[in-house]
Amino acid sequence: MRILFKDANILNVKDGTLSLGNVITCGNTIEYVGTSSFGEFDEVIDCNKNIVMPGFVDAHCHSPMSILRGTGDDTALDEWLYNYMIPLENKLTPDDIYWGEKLAVLEYLASGITTVEECYFENEKILQALSQSGLRARVGFGPSTRKVSGDLQTYLKTQLSLFEKYDSSLLKPCVYIHAIYSTTQEDIEKSVDFSAKHNLPMSIHLSETLDEVGNCTVQNGGLTPPQYLESLGFFDRQTLCYHCVHMDKDDLQILSDYDASICTCPSSNVKLASGIAPVYAMQNKGINIAIGTDGPASNNSLDMFKEMFLVATLSKVAISDASVVKASEVLKMATLNGAKALGFDSGEIAKGKKADIIVVDIHNPHMHPHDNLVSNLVYSAKSSDVKLTMVDGKILYRDGKYTNEDVEQIYKKVDEIKKRLKNEH
Amino acid sequence: MRILFKDANILNVKDGTLSLGNVITCGNTIEYVGTSSFGEFDEVIDCNKNIVMPGFVDAHCHSPMSILRGTGDDTALDEWLYNYMIPLENKLTPDDIYWGEKLAVLEYLASGITTVEECYFENEKILQALSQSGLRARVGFGPSTRKVSGDLQTYLKTQLSLFEKYDSSLLKPCVYIHAIYSTTQEDIEKSVDFSAKHNLPMSIHLSETLDEVGNCTVQNGGLTPPQYLESLGFFDRQTLCYHCVHMDKDDLQILSDYDASICTCPSSNVKLASGIAPVYAMQNKGINIAIGTDGPASNNSLDMFKEMFLVATLSKVAISDASVVKASEVLKMATLNGAKALGFDSGEIAKGKKADIIVVDIHNPHMHPHDNLVSNLVYSAKSSDVKLTMVDGKILYRDGKYTNEDVEQIYKKVDEIKKRLKNEH
Description:
2 domains; homodimer; alpha/beta; nine-stranded mixed sheet; globular; Urease, subunit C, domain 1; TIM Barrel; 17 strands; 14 helices; eight-stranded parallel sheet
């Protein structure tokens, strides 16, 4: 398949500029970006000066929690987690998780998210749903809030073997430790060993709340969460740390020294009252910052436009300076930095990159006038402006329609699951 | 015209509940809310269980700044204001302002905003555009950043007389003082006198930034902005104060004692790094809190869904408590409280109220599951979910189409204006 995106405002996320031109994809790759066009095309998409940009990389999500959207909202964090989330999650069957993942997929594609980092349970079902979807994803497994049955080592091996039947350019594994507070030191060490042995990257929730930081320092001889993880060799691996809300400059220096990536999740952090992440300080340490939605039960949507607005504006208000964390920087975080954090060769509209592309409509009232479209993308655009979502050269969503998904069936299944959970609760 | 909204999830903003039923409008009024239907209808709108709720009241905006959307973004507040906004605003002709207002109207209607409080210059043009639009609005005039030519008293009289040719149930006047720092004490006093003489409500930007508070106390013998205004008799009038970001409990007590309303504008406050308003403290003082978008150049969109999300979540993170400022409370702020602040008999779906109604689609991935739709409205819904906007019994927007507005002409005019401004700048 050779496809021409014609007459587009092409976003270069590396320098935050737009230029009018054409993009050609061939198979799963971007073949050409420029003002010409050549050869035969299977399809010509007239972009009508709409923005063509890389799809968003949602670098942290627990997608099947879409099933729990709106549950326990407006309660304190502990109540939300221990009275709502964990009891309900314990009732979720593998099939529930499959349908929850599929509901999330609908939202991902409609809002221009082409790649996700997925951390949940029942990865067999998650991989199945993701594989059907055509999304690009990194899927984590490891010690989490749901107790591993049997020996951790065996569990990790079994989990890794699940990936064998899927296209490794689209679905990749990583070793995911839920958090310091939910995992023993022994299990962290075993996970790091496993990651080293199989050359796998690692992810973890880190310094998300003040409680986490306080408890860690008390329980580990004054070590902050990054210091504690450093002492266990965690950062010797290629790592992605979610949240990082409560980190001082010494903590950030550790992450910087080891080339760790951070995924900031502003919606979740403000909705659960965790805090505002020090994104400007992270930038100043040269850390690769990606953006994530976190789960749909703590957000409550999978919308990278909302996250971009929040990253830019919360960073400004946190240090009383409206000039920091600029729109162009945030666009790079939401795309290229995310791809880098997850180890995918995508995240920009450039020759040779994987064809993960979205078309964003600019012919809407809130996108006018058009003289600063980079700014409009971060401060004015809505996820409903996404007209088309392509992953790996395949168009998966266009003008409200999905290529691979049966929307009504998914809604029906989710309704049935919710009805059953309500009766059980 | 008698219209039936059939089979709807009807939102009661007073108690934050939804109930399945029908809404009947007759002329510009809500005639019936309940499970029956009776009589003849000019139109039956099958709501298909979508949410029927009052339209949003955007209680603070400078709409024609839509022309300046994306201008001076990511610069410090002073630079934004003095190097970008004010020089450009000085170049805006009355016609530019007319087209800016019309661009904003498109966004209002598409995102379910049925009522606005408008504060800008060239009210003749603004009233003309608003009158054509069919929106409900309160329009302010008084001493502002653009110098009044001639005597203030005469200016105020002339401004008030502009309203004579418009339907006073839709377009109402108020005396608007831009801010303490941009107005002399004499002009504040003259404005208060005029307001008292003509029985008009008053509005002002108040305690928006720390600079404003600091300068006011230095220049006025230690008086904070609310204390200073109290000393000038401002609060003896019916008042609406925008922003109120930097107020301690004594300041809030003054507003509470005088039954002043507050309009909080969270997007603008975080984007311009002004701060996070103490909304929970305002609630505890029993103050009527409305929500506003502020101008499209400091936001950068007119989207009350975004503002609702921010009011709820910023209030939580500001005091580290995820249980405060609940979704149901925020929905009331965005509708009924706004109508109360502006003095309109609208803002709820109840018999006898003005028929300002919107239909919000729930058949979207991000609105599933449906078991907590009140929460979904605040934390998950997008302005693109608005399918229909009715003001004063008239359908002004439905499924992407406007009844009164020529979208392409507005875009064309805005493009021309921007081109001219660019050449002049």
